[in-house]
Specification:
Layout lengths: L13 E2 H23 L2 H5 L7 H8 L14 H20 L3 H18 L6 H13 L22 E2 L2 H20 L3 H4 L4 H6 L7 H6 L3 H17 L10 H22 L5 H8 L6 H19 L3 H8 L19 H24 L14 H6 L15 E11 L4 E3 L5 E2 L15 H10 L8 H13 L7 E12 L10 E8 L3
Antiparallel strand pairs: 1-2, 3-4, 3-6, 4-5, 6-7
Helix pairs in contact: 1-4, 1-6, 1-13, 4-5, 5-6, 6-7, 6-13, 7-11, 7-16, 12-13, 14-15
Amino acid sequence: MLPKLPGLQNPFALDLRALALLRIATGAVVLTDLAIRSTDLEAHYTNLGVLPLHVLFQFCWNPYEFSLHTSSGLWAVQAMWFGLAALAAVAVLLGYKTRWATALSWLLLISLQNRNPLIVQGGDDLLRMLLFWGLFLPWGRVYSLDSHRQPLPSSYRYISAATVAYVVQLALVYWCTALLKNSPEWNHDGTAIYYALSLDQILMPLGRWLYPHAELLRGLTLLTYYTELLLPFLLFLPFRTAWWRLLFVGVLYAFHLGISLTLFVGLFYLINMASVLGLLPPSVLSRLAHWLRPRWTRLAARTHAWRSAWARWQPIQVSVQGRTAPTGSRRPLRHLRDVAVSVLLVYICWWNLDTLPQFRWKMAEPVRWFGYLFRVDQRWGMFAPAVFKDDGWFIMEGTTATGQRLDLNRSGRPVSYAKPASVVALFKNDRWRKYTENYLFVTNSYMRPYYCNYLLRIWHQNPAHPPLRQLEVVYMKEISLPDYQVARPTREVLCSCAPK
C-alpha cells in the first residue's frame, strides 16, 4: 500500500459498484460464449465431431489438465455440462451465492476450453482469468441477490491483494502484447495493420474501407503498438487516479470497438471491454446510479420485493478513509487470502515474463504444473511477433457419382476457384475460423481427416443432397505481399476422403 502522503492516492483502490459491474459483464459474456458454442455442440465437443476424445488425448492433451467434458463423447452429456455452466453463469450475473457460482463457472469454463483447444483464442485466456481473480474479489457485495441479506457497506472503497492482482493482470495483457510484437513491421516500418487487413479471413467492412490508405494504416500501426505499450502505466499513477482510469477505460473501449469493426475477432473485443469495468471511478458510478434511480423506481413500485431490492442499490457517501476493518474472527482468514493471492500474482507475473524473448530467468518446467492445472497459463501474442502472411479461403470440393463438383462450404454450389466477395462470410462463427486457422499448420495434420469425414457425414445426412464419392478439403493459398502487390492464389489439397 502507498503511504498516506498529501496528494497521493492508492491506485489499487477500487469501487465495489465497479466490481459488481465487472461481475455482471463477465457473467453475460460467459453466457454469450456458451450460446455461440452450443450451436456447434456436436461438431466441437462430441465423438461424432472434428475432435473425438481419443484424438484429443493422443495429440492435444496436457497431463496436468482436466476436463469434465471428457467424461463422455455423447451429445447428451455435453448438453448437460453446457446447461450447468449456463446456470452458474446466470448465478454470477445475478450475484446469487456469488463465490460458489464464480468457482463453478470458472471450473466449467476451464473444462470447456480444455475439451477443444483447437478453437481457443486469446480472449478466452482473459475471460478465464477474470473468473479466477473474481474468486478473491468481493464482486457480489452490491448489486446482487446476495447483498439483500447483508448490511449496507460503510464504504464502497475496497483495497486488497486481489485488487492489486486485478489491476496488474490488466496491465500484463497489454504490456506483454506490445513486447511480443518485436518485429519491424510493428515498431519501425508500421506495416503490421496493412498485413492484418490483407487477411481476407478476418477482414470486416471498415477494414476494407481503411485498407487503401497506406499512410493512415502506418499511423494506426504505430498508434496501436504504443497504446498497448504505454497506456497501462496510467493504472499505477498515484494521483488523479479517477481521471487516469477513466482515460484508460475510454481509450480501450474505442480501441476494441475499432478492432471489432475492422477485424473478425469473435468475442475478443467484448471480453476486453468487460474486463476494464472494475476500474470505473466513484464519480461515474454515482452518476450512473443517479440516472438509473427513477427508472428503477418505476419498476420497483410494482411489487414490494422490488422496492426492497432497490434499497440495496441506493448510492451512499463514498469514503476515502479505506475499507471497513474486518471483524476479529475474519481478519486472519483475510490476511491468509491476501498472502495466497500475492503468491499467485508473483507466479502469474513470472509466467507472463517467461513468454517474452527479452526475459532471461525462464520458469523451470517442473514449476509449470500449477499453471496448467488451474489454467492460469497465459500468452498475449495477438499478431505477434509479426502478422501472418499466409491468407486464403477454403473450398470443400465434393465430387458426385456423375462427376459434378460441388462446394460444400457454399451450400453445394458448383465449385469456383474465384475469391468470394467476402471470405469472412464462409465462417459460421469465430470458433470455426480459429479451427480452420489451426487446420493449416503442418504440425496439426492429424486434424485433417476428422474434419473431412465430419463434413462428408453431415452432407449425407440430408437426403436432398446428391451422394459424394470423394471430398477434398482445398485451400486456395494467397500470400500477402508488400505495397499492395497481388499474389496469384495456389490450390492446395489438404485432405481427401471418401464414404466408407
